[in-house]
């Protein structure tokens, strides 16, 4: 079974005195230099993830949500134009799916924003890293999954981002 090593786990190795003793004994680095490199790596890791989370929030708010809202408006217009009760009933299922998707994204987005705001107020970078890994990353994945679902149900002409199939097939099209 493949073992997944998180970036945070790799950074933690730099805090283990037994594992970092060899560079100290061979005078390649001092213990203080190793700790300094650890703190810099933690800061870089935190900053990278903060940028990713803020970008996810921005994309959800400015691109994904407006696309779903346009889809729901379009579905409402079609619903008004339908006269067949059977077709209207089936069409309502499609509308409900879009509304459920909108609700899921709004819920996950709000949860992510709360966690990001709370974590950004922390001044201890190491603690911030642990909170990001433990709380924000899983929440970001929930929002990402909700947005991925939206990508599958929103009309191509309304979706503002490249779809996965377009990205995957980009090199095969001429």
The amount of beta strand, in percent, is under 5%
Give the helices and strands as they follow along the chain.
Answer: HHHHHH
Helical element count? 6
Biggest sheet statistics = none
Which residue ranges are poorly predicted, with pLDDT under 50 across at least 5 consecutive positions? none
Tell how many strands the DSSP assignment holds.
0
Measured as a percent range, the helix fraction is over 70%
Beginning-to-end CA distance, first to last residue: 39 Å
Rg value: 23 Å
Secondary-structure map:
Layout lengths: L6 H6 L4 H9 L5 H51 L3 H36 L4 H29 L10 H6 L5
Helix pairs in contact: 3-4, 3-5, 4-5
Q: Could you walk me through the main structural features you see in this protein, from its secondary elements to its overall organization?
A:
With 174 residues, the chain is mostly helical. 79% of the residues lie in helices and 0% in strands. It is built from 6 helices and no strands. It has helices at 7-12, 17-25, 31-81, 85-120, 125-153, 164-169. α3 (31-81) packs antiparallel against α4. It is elongated, with a radius of gyration of 23 Å.
């Amino acid at each position: 079974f493949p073992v997944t090593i998180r970036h945070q786990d790799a950074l933690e190795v730099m805090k283990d005195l037994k594992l970092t003793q060899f560079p100290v004994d061979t005078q390649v680095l001092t213990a203080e230099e190793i700790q300094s490199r650890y703190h810099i790596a933690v800061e870089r890791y935190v900053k990278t993830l903060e940028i990713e989370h803020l970008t996810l929030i921005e994309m959800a708010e400015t691109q994904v949500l407006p696309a779903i809202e346009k889809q729901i408006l379009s579905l409402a217009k079609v619903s008004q134009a339908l006269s067949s009760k059977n077709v209207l009933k089936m069409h309502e299922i499609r509308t409900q799916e879009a509304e459920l998707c909108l609700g899921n994204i709004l819920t996950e987005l709000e949860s992510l924003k709360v966690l990001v705001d709370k974590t950004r107020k922390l001044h201890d970078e190491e603690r911030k890293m642990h909170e990001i890994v433990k709380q924000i990353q899983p929440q970001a994945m929930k929002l990402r999954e909700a947005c991925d679902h939206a990508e599958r149900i929103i009309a191509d002409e309304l979706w503002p981002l490249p779809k996965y199939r377009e990205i995957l097939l980009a090199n095969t099209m001429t």
